[in-house]
Amino acid sequence: MLLAFDTATPAVTVAVRDDHRVRAERAVVDARRHGELLGPGIGQVLAEAGVSPSDLTKIAVGVGPGPFTGLRVGLVTARAMADALGIPVVGVCTLDVLAADVVCGAPFLVATDARRREVYWATYDEKGLRTDGPHVGRPAELVWSGLAFGAGALQYHDVFKSAHGPHFPSAATLCALVAEGRVTILEPQPLYLRRPDAVEPGARKAVTPA
Amino acid sequence: MADEPLVLGIETSCDETGVGIVRGTTLLANEIASSVDEHARFGGVVPEVASRAHLEAMVPTMRRALEKAGISLSDVDALAVTAGPGLAGALLVGVAAAKAYALALDKPLYGVNHLSAHVAVDVLEHGALPQPCVALLVSGGHSSLLLVPDVTNDVKPLGSTVDDAAGEAFDKVARVLGLPFPGGPHIDRVAREGDAAFATFPRGKADDGTLDFSFSGLKTAVARWIEARERAGEPVPVADVAASFQEAVADVLTAKAITACREHGVDNLLIGGGVAANSRLRVLAQERCDKAGITLRVPRPGLCTDNGAMVAALGAQLVDAGRRPSALDLPADSSLPITEVLV
Ligand SMILES: [Zn+2]
Fold first, then answer.
1. Which long-range contacts does B176-180 make (Cβ < 8 Å, 24+ apart)?
2. Which one of 3.30.420.40, 3.20.20.70, 3.30.390.50, 3.50.30.60 gives the CATH number of domain A2-94+169-179?
3. What is the ipTM of this complex?
């Protein structure tokens, strides 16, 4: 019994899957309340699927890239639940999950919002295999004229002229990718792609005017 | 006693990842992972650095605490976690982890106030809390005087800092004296060799009739004093300045704490928070409490600084008091009011 969730975008998405199919899934879009939404979301999905936490055999979590605060909610939840239940936890690149829901038969780009007028992005070939990324950068500085998908592409449609949905990754897709071995498995480590904002102090400033 | 609740507490409000385990009022484990070294070169806690460190430290710290206590997670009766106040992103890691453990184990979760936990922890050291007591909580993040009729549901603010926290003043003065971050232990160390009467630095708000504190003026006065010396080409007597600064902080903190006890007819004072480890504060508080007929309670340093045991201790008292656990949508609240013991 596989529990999967992703909190690397404004969508808090949760799904649970048995050996054959997704039993329940749920997604709520709210960029500011990941910490409040994920716990109850997991509880509801498990209840709806008639699954108790002790039935779970594996946890899969989206490891971003994504805004740090929300991303960490998913990762610490996955690690702590796996620790409590004594089961393995695996990570998957969030952009790969989004890309798996794209059907276009041509090379394409996936982008999610990175705030600060930047996007997290990766490119994929016509078979859906990742060819570049994940990276973070300004949309205008990206040399990409092909198809583009995801909320980050739609947000900057002046740059990504042919932007389409899906906006966000789906936990049901994450379940399927992991269960069917169709995706690169990563450690449950966040893909931050940016260093913390922190500046070392320079020389001390005098408080008395010179 | 076996029927006392076994409670696990998680604390991530600043730069310490703490997991504590108590049975009733008995401490079983108090494991801490600190990211303080990662902040040292920035001269203060960098929230994003602290949050990243909490994520990495959470499960390993949990494992160490369980091993130390000699229990397994399934033995736990309830979990408690700091819901605020503190750094928003840091709190969120602990709250999310606590929810995940509570959900996986199907155990009740209590989201608690960090300041109340600083008070509640003393039951582990000195037994049941006197009701009421006055609490002076001083650290890098807070400087508060509280009236505590009942730590599980009645905590009243009496005063707090209007600018810098006491611990922040220690950090800033340490910096002008060329001492490392965090400043508290270093100032305490060098001050032992210094003369506390060497210079008289201002006691902010000392006689203003309130129970509030101010440390910003003190910090600036120390910096000005040092700069004047440097301009005059004279050496800075680091030990003497540290001792004089520390004296000013200890003086104003203890004076207001005693006043708070007197004004409210309370004869028990509790001091907590990282600055409670300061040796001069402890000595002066004891002297003044003795003179005023007040009983002073100060937990040992490891229970004064931020830790998980204090959260577990408060959780156990909430379980005992029959309080209802928090909901799973419990938010982390960086500015949680002092009066809200349980979220
Ligand atoms: Zn504290």
1. B176/A204, B176/B222, B176/B223, B176/B226, B177/B226, B177/B236, B177/B238, B177/B241, B177/B242, B178/B238, B179/B238, B179/B242, B180/B40
2. 3.30.420.40
3. 0.96
